[in-house]
Write a structure and sequence with these properties.
elongated; mainly alpha; 35 residues
């Protein structure tokens, strides 16, 4: 349950970043998550 909450927070942060940052930065961000 706690893990799900952390994952949810992670997703929210990712959505926030994608929304705030220009489209060009999205690819960098996604590569960051994969690494």
């Amino acid at each position: 349950m706690r893990d799900d909450r952390l994952r949810y927070q992670d997703v929210l942060k990712a959505i926030e970043q994608i929304r705030l940052e220009p489209l060009g930065s999205q690819e960098e961000f996604l590569q960051d998550r994969r690494a």
